[in-house]
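Page header: ASSEMBLY MODEL / two components / 230 residues total.
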Amino acid sequence: GAVVSQHPSRVICKSGTSVKIECRSLDFQATTMFWYRQFPKQSLMLMATSNEGSKATYEQGVEKDKFLINHASLTLSTLTVTSAHPEDSSFYICSANLAGPGETQYFGPGTRLLVL
Amino acid sequence: KQEVTQIPAALSVPEGENLVLNCSFTDSAIYNLQWFRQDPGKGLTSLLLIQSSQREQTSGRLNASLDKSSGRSTLYIAASQPGDSATYLCAPENYGGATNKLIFGTGTLLAVQP
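Prediction written out in full:
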């Protein structure tokens, strides 16, 4: 099956620092990747849709200058949490479509971010 | 705006029981609906995908049904096992312009007791 990886799996940082999270499709090309955030005991909330070679589309209420997304290749999308604060602490998960809309999304293992 | 609700929020059953997880959604204009499993602190594993034109899908001990017009889907798990313990999420996929979007429910936390 299609495999999506994320790096790092866990990060602890001080308030004010920036954190970059990578999402890679290991055995397929993904023109579209998705970034989700999940707070404890809550469901996944879509943050943005990452399109290869173009600007990401952000969901309402998600600050694009706070959460920078770059999708420079068909196998890599990055999410940078700029000037992280404790309220940004969450579980960040990416996913990718194997064959476009309507098909199964394959999810990465997630990145646990803790901002002190 | 699509809103997805899952009932029950939590469920604890003894091993071997058959059980039903419920999902309801407010916007029936969906492309498909997927059921996922999430283990604690982990990503998601896709279990079943039902296209909007389909009524049900089966995979092993899992059977998912879809009634698009009434905005409901159920996940049936037969002969539950301790290894089935996880959070189960349903996610209808809505048309989102250039790219469709998955909207996730709140999840059902399942515990199967040995």
